[in-house]
């Protein structure tokens, strides 16, 4: 007899429908798994056999063939244990045939308990799109699966519970989904930062338009301190952004227990020893890297020149395309990687070049060599270059609190609201940093004085076409923060002043 149980699988961060077909026939007892299973799927034979016996059911001593369709896509992970278990039970007539609108996902322990698996949210979304109405998952994954609206999700702790439910003996109740609510950031506050008003202004602009920013200054000037306070002023996540970010963390197995959905923008700060594969993603079976885990959030690279050159150059294409494609023997996958890049670095190897104390011992050649560790094409992709001077004693000794993150965040959210209304008919564009050339022609046209100023700066600073576009996008964000529909000369001037490295390289 042949049985068919619907399950799901993963390809990158996208789910797909998988049918688990089970056939029992005569001949010597055997248990074969086909359909491009990997090693962890093949090991399901032993887990399922033990689970059926230890749950008190009869394991059929027949020739068992299980096919995971479609057979041309590689199946990975232990998530097919449960559908294989149910397929054998149904084929041996110990269980009614599950309906085609029911889907099952889960890893089995040897005693029949269900263990959680990764990637349940994208699988739930794929199952819903394929016409599935009921999804059965391990109890720990139920909250995550329930995020997929319009799907009845059943939390299962033991395989015998599903058997009783399908037999009509002990019905299970579906899991209810919690309503989406953007979570407030509880991290450190900008009120702790004394002085550095120009840098805080640059970070406010970066947050309002999702622009990339590079901070250059001596040790102890507060670069890392301000970068780690950036999440406190980032705009609220939309439901669509939260859903996409959660899918990445789900596939990576990094969702926190009790938090089925990512409701705060991620902040990733890898160490400078990270490899190129650690940033972009990879492994024998490609998994998301740091740049994908920072999707819709911030990727902070402290001590930028200390990162391996090949790791930094990996960033160039994702910064432009918002996507990273990883090719390995096991296949090719693409992960979204539209993040906000925030970098910090010293101006020279000793760190004190230009410091008022005169402590720097580096030669001009040494300073140039240190700066050249960052390639021109990468610097060209960074919108804001900010010089971070040492903090004066007057600022440090001041007892009046600085402007809080909550006050800055109000302005950032107001600017993002303007952008959301402006781009509501432009599919795929959510903020100024994502503008395409044809959209820039509509939304980033400066007034006559601004045009003249930009032309003069273009020739004086030797701007590239890319840096020209970056200045216009930043000016558009500055105008949004000011509540201006028109980009004016002051907005252009402020955007130009945040291209300090263009000025230095020209000089």
Strand order in the largest sheet: 12-15-18-11-19
Amount of helix:
25-40%
Spatial extent as radius of gyration: 28 Å
Percentage of residues in strands: 15-25%
Structural commentary:
By secondary structure, the protein is α/β, with parallel strands linked by helices. About 35% of the residues lie in helices and about 20% in strands. It has 22 helices and 19 strands. The strands form 6 sheets. The chain has a 5-stranded parallel β-sheet. Strands 1-2-4-3 form a 4-stranded mixed β-sheet. The chain has a 4-stranded mixed β-sheet with strand order 5-8-9-10, with helices on both faces. Helix 19 (about 450-460) packs parallel to helix 21 (about 490-495) and helix 20 (about 465-480) packs across helix 21. The chain starts with a strand and ends with a helix. The model has no long low-confidence stretch (mean pLDDT about 90).
What's the short version?
Helix content is 37%, strand content 18%.
Helix and strand layout, with pairings?
Elements: E1 2-11, E2 14-25, E3 30-34, H1 39-42, H2 44-54, E4 63-69, H3 81-91, E5 102-104, E6 107-108, E7 114-115, H4 120-129, E8 134-138, H5 142-145, E9 152-156, H6 159-166, E10 174-175, H7 197-209, E11 213-216, H8 223-227, H9 239-251, E12 267-268, H10 276-280, E13 281-282, E14 287-288, H11 290-293, E15 298-302, H12 309-313, H13 316-321, E16 323-328, E17 331-336, E18 340-345, H14 364-371, H15 376-380, E19 384-387, H16 393-397, H17 405-422, H18 437-443, H19 448-461, H20 465-481, H21 489-497, H22 500-506
Parallel strand pairs: 3-4, 5-8, 8-9, 11-18, 11-19, 12-15, 15-18
Antiparallel strand pairs: 1-2, 2-4, 6-7, 9-10, 13-14, 16-17
């Amino acid at each position: 007899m042949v049985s068919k149980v619907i399950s799901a699988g993963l390809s990158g961060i996208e789910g797909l429908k998988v049918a688990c077909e089970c056939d029992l026939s005569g001949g010597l007892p055997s248990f074969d798994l086909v359909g491009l299973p990997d090693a962890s799927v093949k090991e399901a034979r032993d887990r399922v056999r033990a689970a059926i016996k230890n749950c008190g059911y009869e394991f059929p001593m027949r020739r068992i063939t299980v096919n995971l369709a479609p057979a041309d896509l590689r199946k990975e992970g232990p998530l097919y244990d449960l559908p294989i278990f149910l397929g054998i039970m149904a084929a041996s007539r110990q269980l009614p045939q599950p309906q085609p609108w029911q889907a099952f996902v889960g890893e089995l322990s040897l005693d029949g308990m269900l263990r959680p698996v990764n990637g349940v949210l994208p699988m739930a979304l794929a199952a819903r799109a394929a016409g599935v109405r009921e999804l059965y998952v391990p109890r720990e994954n139920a909250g995550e699966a329930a995020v997929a609206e319009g799907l009845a999700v059943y939390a299962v702790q033991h395989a015998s519970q599903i058997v009783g439910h399908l037999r009509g003996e002990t019905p299970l109740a579906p899991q209810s989904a919690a309503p989406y609510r953007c979570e407030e950031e509880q991290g450190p506050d900008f009120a702790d930062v004394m002085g550095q008003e120009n840098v805080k202004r640059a970070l406010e602009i970066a947050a309002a338009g999702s622009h990339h920013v590079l901070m250059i200054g001596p040790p102890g000037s507060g670069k890392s301190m301000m970068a780690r306070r950036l999440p406190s002023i980032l705009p609220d996540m939309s439901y669509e952004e939260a859903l996409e970010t959660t899918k990445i963390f789900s596939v990576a197995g990094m969702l926190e227990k009790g938090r089925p959905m990512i409701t705060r923008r991620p902040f990733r700060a890898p160490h400078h020893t990270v490899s190129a594969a650690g940033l972009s993603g990879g492994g024998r079976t490609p998994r998301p890297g740091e740049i994908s885990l920072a999707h819709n959030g911030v990727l902070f690279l402290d001590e930028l020149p200390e990162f391996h050159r090949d790791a930094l150059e990996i960033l160039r294409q994702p910064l432009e395309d918002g996507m990273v494609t990883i090719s390995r023997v096991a296949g090719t996958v693409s992960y979204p990687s539209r993040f906000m890049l925030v970098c910090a670095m010293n101006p020279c190897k000793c760190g004190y070049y230009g410091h008022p104390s005169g402590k720097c011992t580096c030669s001009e050649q040494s300073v140039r060599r240190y700066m050249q560790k960052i390639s021109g094409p990468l610097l060209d992709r960074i919108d804001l270059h900010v010089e971070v001077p040492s903090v004066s004693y007057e600022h440090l000794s001041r007892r009046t609190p600085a402007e809080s993150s909550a006050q800055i965040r109000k302005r950032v959210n107001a600017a993002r609201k303007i952008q959301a209304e402006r781009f509501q008919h432009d599919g795929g564009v959510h903020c100024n940093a994502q503008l395409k050339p044809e959209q820039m022609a509509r939304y980033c046209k400066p007034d006559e004085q601004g045009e003249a100023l930009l032309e003069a700066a273009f020739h004086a600073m030797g701007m590239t076409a890319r840096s020209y576009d970056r200045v216009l996008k930043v000016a558009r964000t500055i105008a949004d923060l000011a509540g201006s529909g028109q980009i004016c000369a002051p907005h252009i001037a402020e955007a130009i002043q945040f291209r300090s490295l263009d000025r230095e390289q020209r000089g």
